[in-house]
Every structure is written in structure tokens, then in C-alpha cells.
């Protein structure tokens, strides 16, 4: 199971990103552990300067905007 973290302070784009990932996983029939990370120290520890960021299994795969649903599905399938 993949562990996916949405890195952001809770802005609208962060919420949309969380929902895009949740829906993509549901559509793919893949179970993921999805977490919102709002703690600025944790976000900075990843080196993310623009939010929302997305980390999968501890590795940042995206930062600075809402990822496209097709991109998210690719991440989940890998």
C-alpha cells in the first residue's frame, strides 16, 4: 500500500489535491494511506517551497499546484 501525503497549510488547492488523489485511488481500485500534512516544519523538511506538494512513500513527486487526475492515476499504478 502506498503512503501518500498532501503537503500544504490547508488552502483550497490543498483540499482539491487531496480529493483528486482520493478519487483517483477509488477509481483505480487501489487502497492508499492518504494523509494531509499541515505542519510547516514537516512540509519544510521535505524541501517543498510551493504548495500543495505530494509525497509518495516519503519522496516528493509534485509541488506547486493541483496535479492532473491522469498524473495521479499514474502515480498510484506505479
Give a short summary of the structure.
This protein is an alpha+beta fold.
Task: Walk me through the structure.
- There is one protein chain.
- The protein is α+β, with helices and mostly antiparallel strands.
- It has one domain: Glutaredoxin, CATH 3.40.30.
- Helices cover 41% and strands 27% of the residues.
- Helix 1 (12-28) crosses helix 3.
- 29% of the residues are buried.
- The mean pLDDT is 95.
Keywords:
4-stranded mixed beta sheet; 4 strands; Glutaredoxin; globular; 27% strand; alpha+beta; 78 residues; 3 helices
- Content of β-strand: 25-35%
What overall geometry do the principal axes of the alpha carbons give? globular
Overall mean pLDDT: 95
The helix content is 40-55%
The major sheet is characterized as:
4 strands, mixed
Count every helix, treating DSSP H or I runs of 4 or more residues as helices. Answer: 3
State the distance separating the first and last CA atoms: 11 Å
Calculate Rg over CA atoms. Answer: 11 Å
At the fold tier of CATH, the topology name is Glutaredoxin
Q: Which regions contain 5 or more consecutive residues with pLDDT less than 50?
A: none
How many domains would you count in the coordinates?
1
Number of strands: 4
Structural class: alpha+beta
Q: What's the CATH class, please? A: Alpha Beta
- CATH architectural designation: 3-Layer(aba) Sandwich
CATH superfamily: Glutaredoxin
How would you write the strand order of the largest sheet? 2-1-3-4
Helix and strand element order? EHEHEEH
Amino acid at each position: 500500500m502506498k503512503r501518500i501525503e498532501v503537503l500544504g497549510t490547508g488552502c483550497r488547492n490543498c483540499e482539491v489535491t487531496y480529493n483528486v488523489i482520493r478519487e483517483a485511488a477509488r477509481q483505480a481500485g487501489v487502497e492508499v494511506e492518504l494523509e494531509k500534512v499541515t505542519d510547516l516544519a514537516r512540509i519544510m523538511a521535505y524541501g517543498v517551497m510551493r504548495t500543495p506538494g505530494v509525497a509518495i512513500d516519503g519522496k516528493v513527486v509534485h509541488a506547486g499546484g493541483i496535479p492532473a487526475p491522469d498524473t495521479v492515476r499514474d502515480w498510484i499504478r506505479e
